[in-house]
């Protein structure tokens, strides 16, 4: 994996962005395999006791916003409750889905919101979501497809 890691880390910003979008697409496949459009996932918010519904379309819309380069659908605001619920252990997702959710969220945060998210974090989350046993080969495939 070392060679692919070095190659990923040495990409220029445009190629790294393309690779992160490709990693987001991998994570989105994992997400949608477990939470297809139209799914209903309810959870109870511990602070207020209110019942919330997870927006299963949000990861797809977030990745679309990354491709477009803007948040036209208030995605950043829409993520707030679910991210807080994950961090507060109010919302439980299967591990692969949770990695996928965070990977796409972080791609969105990095390339639309402009937060300083380490691209290597995105790569790790996306590849972990896919359960890829050979991370070096998987990352090499991403780099071939994205750049």
The geometry reads as globular
How far do the termini sit from each other? 18 Å
Q: Compute the gyration radius: what is it?
A: 15 Å
What is the strand content?
5-15%
Biggest β-sheet description: 2 strands, antiparallel
- Per DSSP, the total helix count is 7
- Spatial ordering of strands, largest sheet: 1-2
Pattern of helices and strands: HHEEHHHHH
Notable characteristics:
mainly alpha; 66% helix; two-stranded antiparallel sheet; globular; 147 residues
Tell me about this structure.
It contains 7 helices and 2 strands; from the N terminus they run ααββααααα. With 147 residues, it is mainly α. It has a two-stranded antiparallel ribbon. Helix 2 packs antiparallel against helix 3 (58-68) and helix 2 packs across helix 7. The longest helix has 22 residues, at 13-34. It is globular and about 50 Å long. The mean pLDDT is 90.
Lay out the secondary structure.
Elements: H1 2-9, H2 13-34, E1 41-44, E2 51-54, H3 58-68, H4 75-87, H5 95-113, H6 119-130, H7 135-146
Antiparallel strand pairs: 1-2
Helix pairs in contact: 1-7, 2-3, 2-5, 2-6, 2-7, 3-4, 3-5, 5-6
């Amino acid at each position: 994996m070392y060679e692919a890691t070095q190659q990923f880390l040495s990409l220029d910003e445009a190629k790294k962005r393309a690779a992160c979008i490709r990693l987001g697409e991998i994570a989105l496949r994992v997400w949608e395999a477990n939470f297809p459009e139209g799914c209903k996932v309810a959870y109870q918010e511990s602070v207020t006791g209110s019942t919330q519904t997870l927006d299963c379309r949000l990861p797809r819309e977030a990745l679309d916003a990354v491709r477009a380069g803007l948040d036209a659908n208030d995605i950043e605001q829409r993520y707030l409750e679910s991210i807080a619920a994950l961090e507060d252990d109010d919302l439980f997702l299967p591990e692969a889905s949770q990695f996928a959710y965070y990977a796409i969220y972080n791609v969105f945060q990095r390339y639309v919101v402009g937060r300083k998210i380490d691209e290597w974090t995105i790569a790790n989350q996306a590849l972990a979501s896919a359960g890829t046993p050979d991370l070096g080969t998987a990352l090499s495939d991403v780099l071939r497809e994205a750049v």
